[in-house]
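Appendix B. One record, verbatim.
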Amino acid sequence: MLTPFHLAIQVRDVDEARDFYGVKMGLAEGRSDSAWIDFNLFGHQLVTHLNPALGQNGRVAKHHNPVDDHAVPVPHFGVVLEVDVWKPFAERVASLVDEFIIEPHVRFKGQPGEQHTMFFEDPSGNALEFKAFADIQSQLFATD
């Protein structure tokens, strides 16, 4: 059994984070304060912390690395899901983000580690990846 992770990220506006993660993405809100909010990210604890230095239009800095003919943003975070959970979630995300960094698609098709994946950003510029495998246990760390 995997244990839940805890991840704290910076955001430019707490109310904007509440709208994006809570309302639009449908994540349940846990404890909160004027400077942070806990969200239930598929059983994991995601905490959005206000960073006033970002300003109202600020964005978290990142760079990109090439993976499977795509420019993958670094840093990024997300969750590995079952395919039957990923597909409706991808449809929901398509209705709430203005633009994908990497559109939902199948990466490494026919190879070890074949996966459904998509990348997008929250309003503060935090890059998120959600992926799914047909068999998480055998494919998540597959090398051959």
